[in-house]
Amino acid sequence: MIVVTAVSHRSSKEVDKEAYYKRLEIMLQDMFGEECVSNTNDSTITVTVDGKTAVLSLETRTVECEEGLDEDETLRELVQLAAQRLYDALSPANL
């Protein structure tokens, strides 16, 4: 009989936020280019593509765009979905 024991180095079931933020920044730079992604403070990442800007809140994983611009909706959805999928991928499984 073989017994496999999983050992977790983290006691909480939270995502390591610092690692998530860094990986998210790298992923967005890969998606849009380094010149399009800026992290001016510890709580947001800004993505600017073709004059359209999306501001991603790192705490809530929600994206805000300039008001009144329907064409920003595609960029908003793309950035928000990418952030959420990466967060989900890094989240520990509930066993």
From TrEMBL:
GO CC, any one term: nucleus
Domain Pre-mRNA 3'-end-processing endonuclease polyadenylation factor C-term, residue spans: 9-92
Main location group: nucleus
Keyword terms: mRNA processing, Nucleus
Name this protein carries in UniProt: Pre-mRNA 3'-end-processing endonuclease polyadenylation factor C-term domain-containing protein
Organism: Aquarana catesbeiana
Keyword Repressor belongs to the record: no
An example Gene Ontology biological process: mRNA processing
Pfam families membership: CPSF73-100_C (PF11718)
InterPro entries (UniProt xref): CPSF73-100_C
Subcellular location: Nucleus
